[in-house]
Specification:
480 residues, alpha/beta, 3 domains, single chain, Rossmann fold, elongated, four-stranded antiparallel beta sheet
């Protein structure tokens, strides 16, 4: 297993990762509240943790990755009322859309997507234990609140001080609560809303307790890694710590906290509740999944990232074309001649460089998942191969496979070169290469109108053709 470090939000420091029960790693990432279609901000968070999962598995860890689904809350109820539908059905519909978007982005690393309402027995049991310990209390309407004053460590993760939580500012004014900072873990039933029976009266779970009930059931009182975007540190993750550690008496709930930076739109947090969102599916449609992953990952995960389709994503589109151009040539040659093709062996220095680069990529990512620097190394490799020019044509299939090694790493870990989205892979090559050979023959006999027709037909299909002497090269436009 590879040694790596993560920046831990609790200690605000970089720490060597040491799982509780190696090689097993338990990772929990706060997932979607599916009351509307996913936006590109969701894409950034879940692509990054997909890379974490891919890397851990590559490095020999046995990862159990859980991403929850909050399928009932105030926002879902309000949106369902607007659409005159059942909130649970609305959540099912948007979650199915989200899963389809994740598949398009190559995010298939999650082992389990638990729904909050499937854990009602665990939620009720945890609330009962908190009430029995005197850490939670029933209000006059049947709601149950957690008494924040009973947990001395509240505020440690976020740096918030309880005395700074002024009523009407960061917390709601509610006469049913003993203190302004207390929060609901069971909400009394409201007519027309879904509800379940409980010892305190009919109602539904509060947001924070859903997650801890899940993790207590799936992982036990402690686990390795909790991730999410940075906006969930307070109050959500602060509340999770208080609830779980008070329930079990064991600490810490989580050994490592990882929080990703927000995706901004014109300098503001992108949020469905604010209405300043850009559709994830529309962005995938426009630029392609690999370009979007490059855009997300070509930045430090803890830093904010400003979303601007006209500039930053356009630049990523062009950058991706440059990044994968040598890979397209390698795959095109392999598809045409087979990867057992005869040819010249790789020079020893280039062969060694290819092998060393893969190790450098792993080492770079092992430093707090520095995807930006790893991508810089891949760009350097693409420039190195571009310098070979036409000499690449003479290299044997074995040599081409070695040159492809860093790109294979880029797909395995970063998901940048999916087999379903390349130029030069077999399905496209089988269609394009015969057309190019026909075009080369037309040019050779001087039938340039026919050659132009074939080129234009390929361009319409999203394939760009570049003439190099008597032969041609081709590439599939990113997102084409």
């Amino acid at each position: 297993m590879r040694r790596f470090t993560v920046y831990d939000s609790l200690t605000r420091s970089s720490r060597v990762f040491a799982p509780r029960h190696p090689p097993r790693v338990e990772m929990y990432v706060c997932g979607l509240t599916p009351y509307a279609p996913a936006h590109v901000g969701h894409g950034r968070t879940f692509v990054f943790f997909d890379v974490v999962a891919r890397a851990l598995r590559r490095w020999g860890y046995r990862l159990f990755y859980v991403q929850n689904v909050t399928n009932l809350d105030d926002k879902l109820i309000a949106r369902a009322a607007e659409e005159r539908t059942d909130p649970l059905l609305l959540a099912e519909r948007h979650f199915a859309e989200y899963r389809a978007s994740m598949r398009r982005l190559g995010v298939e690393s999650v082992d389990l997507y638990p729904f909050a309402t499937d854990y009602l027995p665990e939620i009720l049991d945890q609330i009962r234990r908190l009430v029995d310990r005197g850490a939670a209390y029933r209000a006059t309407d049947g709601s149950v609140y957690f008494d924040v004053g009973r947990f001395a460590g509240y505020g440690r993760l976020s740096g918030q001080k309880v005395e700074a939580l002024q009523p009407g500012a960061r917390v709601e004014v509610d006469p049913r609560k003993r203190a302004p900072e207390d929060f609901a873990i069971w909400k009394a039933a409201t007519p027309g809303e879904p509800s379940w029976e409980s010892p305190w009266g009919p109602g539904r779970p509060g947001w924070h307790v859903e997650d801890t009930a899940m993790t207590l059931r799936l992982f036990g009182p402690r686990y390795d890694l909790h991730g999410a975007a940075i906006d969930l540190i307070f109050p959500h993750h602060e509340a999770e710590v208080a609830l779980a550690e008070t329930t079990t008496g064991e600490a810490p709930l989580v050994n490592y906290w990882m929080h990703g930076g927000l995706l901004l739109l014109q300098g503001e947090k992108m949020s469905k509740s604010l209405g300043n969102v850009a559709s994830l599916d529309a962005s995938i449609d426009r630029f392609g999944p690999a370009v979007l992953r490059l855009y997300y990952l070509n930045a430090l995960y803890r830093s904010p990232l400003d979303f601007d389709p006209a500039t930053s994503l356009g630049e990523s589109n062009e950058a991706y074309r440059r990044l994968r151009a040598p890979l397209e040539r390698i795959d095109s040659l392999g598809a045409r001649d087979g990867m057992d093709r005869p040819g010249d062996p790789l020079p020893a220095d280039l062969l060694a460089e290819a092998g060393t680069l893969v190790e450098r990529l792993d080492s770079t990512l092992a430093d707090d998942f520095n995807t930006r620097e790893a991508i810089a190394l891949l760009f350097g490799w693409s420039r190195r191969l571009a310098e070979l020019g036409d000499r690449l044509e003479a290299i044997s299939g074995e040599g081409l496979a070695a040159l492809r090694g860093p790109y294979d790493w880029g797909e395995e870990v970063l998901g940048l070169f999916p087999a379903s989205d390349p130029a030069g892979t077999a399905p496209w090559a089988k269609a394009v290469e015969p057309a190019l050979r026909a075009r080369d023959r037309a040019r050779a006999r001087g039938d340039f109108p026919e050659a132009d027709r074939i080129r234009d037909d390929l361009r319409t299909a999203g394939v760009d053709v570049e003439d190099r002497g008597a032969t041609s090269r081709w590439r599939l436009r990113p997102g084409g």
